[in-house]
Amino acid sequence: MADTLLNVLMQRATKALPPAPTASGLFHPEMPSNPYPITPQQWDRRPDGTQKGNGFLGVFVRPDNSVMSEFSIADSENPKLKTATGDYMDYPTFVPTLTKKEIETLLSRKASDVIPESIKAKAEAHALKRLKAGKSVFAEPGEENTSLYPEYARAGVDPVEAIRQQLLQRIATR
């Protein structure tokens, strides 16, 4: 029964996704579902020397076909987001609490663009919550959730599979 319901929901969901130009950063049906094989070892290291990862939301494909995962900032004046020596601590901006518009803003930003305060505030709040729980501010293995915002292309993720996982999550929580 659940499998049949899932198939019906999948058909409706995939029909409901309007094709959008690749330049907008949205999923486009002609785009390969796995344009890049992504492994964390491909990323540079963070300024503190730790290995970057695929982030809380996975690896997004930007409109210019580059990829983006954590997109860290280090500008909080909160003492809890500073190192023992008083240096700024990096923390990711791609966090699960962002809106679709905020995700789009980050994906389409140019290097000279200022990051909106709403994104900074959500990133800082998320980082502080994780520190309070004794966790790293960055996603750890197993915390990546590509089912959020399935309309955006992800490197190494089949968009239809992302929608399927999101529907399964919704069914499981009912």
- Average residue-wise pLDDT: 76
Give the helix/strand class. Answer: mainly alpha
Low-confidence stretches: 14-36
Give the count of helical stretches.
4
Largest sheet: 2 strands, antiparallel
Number of strands: 4
Q: Which percent bin holds the helix content?
A: 25-40%
**Cα-atom radius of gyration:** 17 Å
Distance between the termini: 15 Å
What percentage of amino acids are in beta strands?
A: under 5%
Strand order of the largest sheet: 1-2
Shape: globular
Along the chain, the helix and strand elements come as HEEEEHHH
How many domain units? Answer: 1
3D architecture notes:
- This protein has helices at 2-16, 100-108, 117-132, 159-172, and strands at 60-61, 67-68, 72-73, 91-92.
- The model is unreliable at 14-36 (pLDDT under 50).
- The strands form two sheets. A two-stranded antiparallel ribbon has the order 1-2.
- 28% of the residues are buried.
- By secondary structure, the protein is mostly helical.
- The two termini are 15 Å apart.
- It has one domain (2-172).
- The chain is globular and about 45 Å long.
